[in-house]
Amino acid sequence: MAVKASREFVVDAPPEVVMEALTDVGVLSSWSPLHKHIEVIDRYPDGRPHHVKTTIKIFGLVDREILEYHWGPDWVVYDAKGTAQQHGQHVEYNLKPEGLDKTRVRFDVTVEPGRPMPAFIVRRASESVLDSSVKGLCELVKRGKGSTEPE
User: Fold this and answer.
1) What is the rounded distance in angstroms from the CA atom of residue 117 to the CA atom of residue 119?
2) Reduced to 3 states, what is the DSSP secondary structure of residue 74?
3) Whole-angstrom Cα distance, residue 32 to residue 3?
4) What is the pTM of this model?
5) 107 touches 134 (CB < 8 A)
6) For the structural domain made of 3-145, what CATH number should be given?
7) How far apart are CA 103 and CA 100, in angstroms?
8) Is 116 helix (H, G, I), strand (E, B) or coil?
9) What is the pLDDT of residues 102-124, one digit of tens each?
10) Kind and range of the H or E element at 125?
């Protein structure tokens, strides 16, 4: 059974700055405590990551994933196929300008565990991913281009 979780927050930076931060997947382990190792396998012609190998650790479980990224002007999506811990994973970031030099970010994650697990555990793991991603992205943008504030 797939579990979905979402979060919306406002970043005190324009969408292009937020997208630039999301594009720099090489620093993901510096702002996401879940990601332990990141390796860009290949890139699109515009330089954005296409396939990324990552090792994550959440609630004591370690998983190795190959993520396939897709990029739009105001969104990024990545999917992980089956791994040792999950049948699949789908993540979306959608960006919308809000006011002057602010961005509303919607972050959606869908995870399908690889074996039966109580839904509350999967939900708690999803919430942990959301929390660390919101905090980490805000801190990364703040370090790079101004201040951010989760809403």
Assistant:
1) 6
2) coil
3) 21
4) 0.84
5) yes
6) 3.30.530.20
7) 9
8) coil
9) 999 999 988 877 777 777 777 78
10) helix 119-145
- Is the sign of the CA dihedral 13, 14, 15, 21 positive or negative? negative
For the purposes of burial, counting CB atoms within 10 Å of the CB of 69, is it exposed (0-12), middle (13-18) or buried (19 or more)? buried
Structure token pair of residue 17: 């700055």
In this structure, what token pair is assigned to residue 66?
């190959």
> What are the residue ranges spanned by the domains of the chain?
3-145
CB atoms within 10 A of CB 75: 15
* CA distances in angstroms from 20 to 16, 17, 48, 49, listed in the order given: 6, 5, 10, 12
Residue indicated by tokens 């991603």? 133
Query: Which segments within the chain are labelled E, that is strand?
Result: 3-11, 35-43, 49-58, 61-71, 75-80, 86-97, 103-113
Enclosing H/E stretch for 20: helix 15-23
Integer Cα distance of 62 and 37 in angstroms: 11
- For residues 137 and 19, the answer to whether their CB atoms sit within 8 Å is no
Q: Are 37 and 54 in contact (CB under 8 A)?
A: yes
pLDDT on residue 150: 43
Q: Buried (b) or exposed (e) across 125-143, using 16+ Cβ within 10 A?
A: bbeebbebbbbbbbebbbe
